[in-house]
Amino acid sequence: MTSPDLDAGASVRVEMTKWGDRPHWAFDAVWLGTDVHGAWIGIPSGTPMARPGASLVTETAQVGLVPADAGWLATFHAPGYVVATYVDMTSVPVWDLAAPVPTCRAVDLDLDVIEMPDGRVVVDDEDEFAEHRVTLGYPPEVVSLAETSCAWVAGSVSAGSAPFDGVAARRWFDLLASLGG
């Protein structure tokens, strides 16, 4: 996957869909940079996010990680939010560099790994994934990607392995704060 080559603070967008090209969450963010884990984006407190039938405004700052060639997107939340880390299992994210604003696109595959502020780790929406793999006809390779990604992410978050170690995201939170987010 080719990440944008942008200056810190440049505008980017995230557009998620559900299987069948059905719209899901979309929001604007700021480019932070890249490291060995992938591309990092900043989501300042007060950022509007919307999907069909729902919208919200972020309560705390967040940094997102778009890994290179992996089937997930991670969001790390600043202290004070109801979750510490939220990882969506997705198609392998791609950057649309031809869009008016560089846009990260991925298909949300239902499964989520959530780390609570007290360190508990849960896998959410397994029932939705089981239902959708039948009713929406997820191909076997998509099922395999989601299940393999979920197992790896859940294990890594539970073990506190990078980038889910509380250290990898810290420098990006600092950069986001220095940019006014």
Give a nutshell description of this structure.
This protein has 181 residues and is of the alpha+beta class. It is 22% helix and 40% strand.
Overview of the molecule:
The chain is of the alpha+beta class and 181 residues long. The protein has one domain: Beta Barrel (FomD barrel-like fold). Helix content is 22%, strand content 40%. It has 3 helices and 11 strands. The chain has helices spanning 126-135, 140-159, 170-178; strands spanning 11-18, 22-35, 38-43, 48-51, 54-57, 62-66, 72-77, 85-90, 94-96, 103-115, 121-124. The protein has a 7-stranded mixed barrel. β2 and β3 form a beta hairpin. It is globular. The model has no long low-confidence stretch (mean pLDDT 96).
Q: What's the total helix number?
A: 3
Termini separation: 27 Å
Strand order of the biggest β-sheet? 1-2-3-6-7-8-10
In the predicted model, the low-confidence regions spanning at least 5 consecutive residues are: none
CATH architecture: Beta Barrel
Structural class: alpha+beta
Radius of gyration: 15 Å
Total number of domains = 1
Give a count of the beta strands, DSSP E runs of length 2 or more. Answer: 11
